[in-house]
Amino acid sequence: MAGRGSYAKGVAKREEILERALEVIAREGYRGASVKELADAVGLSQAGLLHYFGSKEELFTEILRKRDEADVVAYGPAEMSDLDLAGFRKTYVDVIRHNSDVPGLVQLFSRMAVDAVDPEHPAHRYFLERGGMFRAAFLEMLRARQASGEMTDRVDAEVLARIFQAVADGMQVQWMLDPSVDMAATVDALFVALTPAHAEPKEPRVDAAS
């Protein structure tokens, strides 16, 4: 029983660390969120903090997982397949818009994505799995919308899913270089571009985001 109680306490402490880390990085930015600062936020030494994760890289990987969980709770419906094109589009663009409010987490994601190209990096599997889940969610929606005529079928749905992923990731880099770029509007414009004229609601033309 004592071992089980210690395990439960350890899980709870990990959750506390991740939740506080999200707050610190969102507030202070990626560069301002050192292991020492994260440890101080939860009343631990740096060694005590890393005891729960093994390394700084594993800690940051789990922070990204926690960020994904929080976004699903805040923006994701139970089943993406339940959404029509307008609902899916709004949900996705809302997440992109939210990212502009948490620049530190965007910086962390983009920096870790580059480092995770190395197969030995602790975040390598996270980014592979996340990308696969991202495309799977899009693929289901895209195929259904192509079948209904709401979205062009001139490009294979799997290719379109990768294009959406590439645009979302690439816009984050552009935005970090130039914060005046409107990530949400630019990603939303991709939906407009892929929607046949007869299926697109009448709305203002989407020009270059400033």
From TrEMBL:
Record-given protein name: DNA-binding transcriptional regulator, AcrR family
Residues of the HTH tetR-type domain: 11-71
Single GO MF annotation: DNA binding
PANTHER family: HTH-TYPE TRANSCRIPTIONAL REPRESSOR NEMR, TRANSCRIPTIONAL REGULATORY PROTEIN
InterPro entries: Homeodomain-like_sf, HTH_TetR, Tet_transcr_reg_TetR-rel_C_sf
Keyword set, alphabetical order: DNA-binding, Transcription, Transcription regulation
Organism per entry: Microbacterium pygmaeum
A Pfam family hit: TetR_N
Residue ranges: DNA binding: 34-53
